[in-house]
Structures are given as C-alpha cells and as structure tokens.
What we know:
The chain is globular and about 70 Å long. The chain has 15 helices and 16 strands. By secondary structure, the protein is of the alpha+beta class. It has helices at residues 6-13, 40-50, 81-84, 96-107, 144-154, 179-190, 193-216, 253-258, 268-287, 330-351, 354-360, 365-377, 449-472, 502-508, 518-521, and strands spanning 2-3, 22-30, 59-62, 72-75, 85-89, 118-124, 131-138, 155-156, 244-252, 296-302, 316-322, 390-395, 403-404, 407-415, 424-431, 434-442. The strands form 3 sheets. The chain has a 7-stranded mixed beta sheet with strand order 5-6-7-2-14-13-8, with helices on both faces. It has a 6-stranded mixed beta sheet with strand order 9-16-15-12-10-11.
Amino acid sequence: MIRLSGMDAMFLYGETPAVHMHVCAVIIVDPSTMPGGYSFDRIKSVMESRLHLVPQFRRRLATVPLGLHHPVWVDDKDFDLDYHVRRIGCPAPGGPEEVGDIAADVAGRPLDRSKPLWEFWVVEGLANGNVAIIGKMHHSTIDGVSGANLMMEVLDLEPDPKDKPQSPEMFKPESVPSEWRLLGEALGEVVRHPLRIAKLVPSTVGTIASFVGARRSHETPDSGMATPFTAPTVNFNGPITPHRKVAFIDIPLDEIKALRRGVEGATVNDVVMAVCSGALRRYLIHRGELPDKSLTAAVPVSVHADEVAGAGANQVSVLFSTLYTDIEDPLERLRKIHNVNKGAKKEQKAIGASTLMGWTELAAPITFSLAMRLASASRISDRVPPAFNLIISNVPGPPIPLYFCGARLGNLYPLGPILAGLGLNVTVLSNMGQMNFGFIACRELMPDLWDLAHAIPESVAELEKAVTEAVNGSMPGSGTTKTKPATTIAAKKAPARKAATRSTARKKASPNMSATKKETAKKKAPRR
C-alpha cells in the first residue's frame, strides 16, 4: 500500500466529467523491424514480460473512508492485461487526421478508477504499414519526467535485445487493506496536520519574500511572470466538454536550435515558445480574432532535481509566461519571450517546490473535488477572465533510436490535459533530431485545430527569415525551412523542402515515420 502524495492526488480531485486528468501519447512505429514480422500477440507478450518493471501497471486506487485522506495505491488482484492493451483498425487512408481522430476519441474517455489507470491502444492499418500506439495514463501516476523514465522500461535499444527482462514466475498481489486500517492510518496523519501547518506558515512567508525580491530585481519592468487572470479571452477559452480534438506536426531540431542565434542567450525552450506564439498569432489572424493584448501561457517546470521530501510521481511547478502575440516582428517576439522567461525562472525558483507540495498534502479530498465540480457546473469560466490562455510544455526526449516490442520508434507526440476554461494544450518533445508538436483541444472550441498545427512551419519560416536577415544581413525571402509536417503518416522519409502555406501543407506534408539518420541518433540529449 502506497499513499498518493498531495500533488498526485490533486490530479484526481481536479477531475470532472469534462476535465480528464490523464496524459496521452501517439507513438508511430515501423513494424518491419520486429523479429518474425508484426504480431499483436508479440506486443502483448512483451508487455506482460515487463509488468514487474513498472509497478504502476498493476496498481489501482483505494479510497479512504469518509475522504479523510488521500487515496492509496494497492495491487489489483484481478488484473487483466487484455483490458489494458487493446487493438483497433485505422480508417482509410490511414493518415494523420485519421490517427488524430482515434487519439481524440481515446483521450475523450475517462479512465476506470476501479482498475489500474492506464491503457495502450494498438492502431493497425496506417499507410505504408506503420502502426500507432496510443498510450493513456492518469496524471496522478506520472508527470513528464517520470513518464519518460517509465517508458524506458518498455522500450529497448535494439529490436531483439539479448538481455531480456526476466519476469517472476507468479505475481502475488499484496492483500488489500481493510477499511478500518485505511481509516486508522488516515486519522494518524490528519492529527498531525496542525503541526505541519505550523511549519509551513514560516516557510510560506519566506517564499513570498523571496518571490517579491526576485520580482524587484529584474533588469526591465516587463521581465518576470505574467500576472494570472489578466489574459484576453479567445476562442479556446470557455467552458469545455468531454470531447477532444488532436493534431500534430514535426520540425527538425537543428532548425529550432539554429534560431537561437537570433537572440543572445536564447534557449530551445524560448524558441519553442516563440514558434508557438507566431503560430497562435497566424491562427487568430486567420479567424479575425487576434486580441490587442498578448496571450499568456502556463509552462510546467520539472522540479525532480530539487529532491523534495515526500514527493510522489508528480514533481512539477509552473510559471506563467507572456507570449507577445501582439507583436508583429517575430525576432522581437523571441527577444521579449527570452527576457520574460529569464525573469520568470528566477521567480519560479524563488517560490520553490517544497512549499507548494507541502500545502497540497493538506488538501481535503471531498472539499476540493466538490469545489472543482461546482466551478465546472456553474460555468464560472464564462464570467471571469482566464487565468492564462493555454498550456505549453517542452519535454526532452530520446536522442537515440528506440524500439517498442521490436518495432522502431518513429515519432512520439505527447498530449497533455486541458482544463476548465483552458481548452488548448501544446506539448513538444525532442525525439531523434525532430521536435514533435502534440496539440489537444476541446473539439467544440477548436474544431479547426489542424489549422494551428499547420501554422507551426509557417511560424518557423517567418522567424528563420528574420533571424537570417538580422545575423547575415540577407535579402528578404532568403529564409527557408526544412519542416516535415506530420500530416501524412504514409511517408517513411520526407525530403527537405521550403515551408508550405497552410493549404499546401495539408497536401504535401509527410513526417518521418520510420528510421531517422544514424548520425542524428547518436547525438547526446540536447541541453535546454
């Protein structure tokens, strides 16, 4: 029996019929490398042999009577692998929009809390024989870093590794604790809450003082975090439904890195946010809805390195960043985003992780869950400005070739959760020389989500042109980009080419869904 940390439990309490707090991933694999050819039975067999390496796969929730404390993880004595690993066919022509629709349907369905909180959907019938794996796992179980570590237990460095994991002969689940035991241990924790509050108050005061000091130390007034609840309202800010829309696209990592030279000290994360900002600006102009005021984004920040005592699977903080979508010049947007992020990181570091996680330990399960459901039912997002407009997350991924059950990993598109009033999440992952952009939104708020995805290569080309002209003094029109928009899963290898317009991108887009260049695969993980 393992009790959830306060931070992990918050993802359970924040769930409503419309807000699903699970994370997903669309993984495209080339089954031609599987020993003996593709076989769904082989996938199940390999997954079964790895279950002992990933305890989360066999754990389910057990709630505490009267909701006195956070739930606990217990072994599922009725675990059924066939329930969690499922098989489905992709409609013709098996392209990205068809895969995106399947992923959206999977993401729009809540996980059954009476079972371990994960599912793998194997999608067959993609163009050119590729296979998609749509993974879904509850956020109470993993965050970006712990999820990447978990996937390494499932993935291999070669199609048929010699040193295969040896699973125990028989899984013996631990007995489920009685309600009396759960109640007794919860009461023992609750009576210590006043002492914990007494310790948290001084540290919280110190944290506030550190934050104020960091805020005042900025070189420019506009540096630092954006103020919550000051963002303009756009089409993806409103009451959300359970229905989802999914899109994805690729940009070569080298192109993202090259754009850093436009602003001294700029990071890959700064460029990613500037590219997203440019795409959002184009998307909103196309709709005739670009606000005069800039959009703001919530940016999750991993604090795994901080070694917070008592932390669970989720060790994450957040900073709020201004995207400067109101600025036309793409290079000036990058410059301002770099400046504001530099200050925001100072403020986020001043806040730290231990104070926030300490307060989440004291959250009352029933009270918090009821508050979230009341806010959702009352459609409060219709009456107050959004805290921020969207979520943008950048996660480092594998720089080397990996294999899933013998099938070579191609592209990996992460999909985070959307929240009440915040109907868009953009998660970016570096993967073997590519930046894989995953978009997920409320279907009713953003039925045209693919338009935003197709605006990414246009934004890259726009920024590349501005950087080239600023650095080299080149003539207008000299900037080009070799984007590989992920809109045709059929292609196994796409030639480099100039960025397409939005309409052309739909016709010509072709991601690298199979092998990546060997020399790219040997690179070390990018420094962020």
